[in-house]
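Q: What does the predicted 3D structure of Thiamine-phosphate synthase look like?
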Amino acid sequence: MRFSKEDLLLYAVTDRHWLNGARLEDHVQQALEAGVTCVQLREKDLDEESFEKEARILKDLCARYDVPFLIDDNVALAHKVGADGVHVGQSDMEAGHVREILGPEKILGVSVQTVQQALLAQECGADYIGVGAVFPTGSKADATEVTHETLTEICAAVDIPVVAIGGISSENVEQLKGSGIAGIAVISAIFAAPDIPVATRELREKLS
């Protein structure tokens, strides 16, 4: 899978909390059609068999749109299903070890909150880093906010692309301009929206 900085412009992270009886793949397809550039499957409560089934469906769906498909945290599953990559946090497997498992061709993203963590992630083979929460968020109970100043310092310190995440919406996304980010990662701004394609297109417009 080719991977570039442009793939991180509008990065959609899934959450089945807002499905209300719909299929996750249908919500993701709506977002893909409207312009998301990367998809991460994030599941905290799904059993392994269901997680794998969902991963295979979304992997094939993203491939049809030529959009990178990553899995959150579950390195073994990402390897098993042939996902384009994986995203890990500071409390997950150490980034260098993840790179050894995935091999050199797969995409590796690492969550960071400090310049020191960012530099270490880069050193360990990360292809991009996620920085957040840049705004208050309800998607992650233990999320600590990262200041705009720290976000800008991280962007300046590393040579790999940076994605901002956490509480980003169409109302506040423009506050991130000038920080040096390659793009934004969002959950509720797309998947909690009453009209996913409209919400996706609005974010794309504000990022251009």
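A (community wiki): The structure tokens above were generated from the sequence. Residues 5-207 form a domain with the TIM Barrel fold (CATH 3.20.20.70). The radius of gyration is 16 Å.
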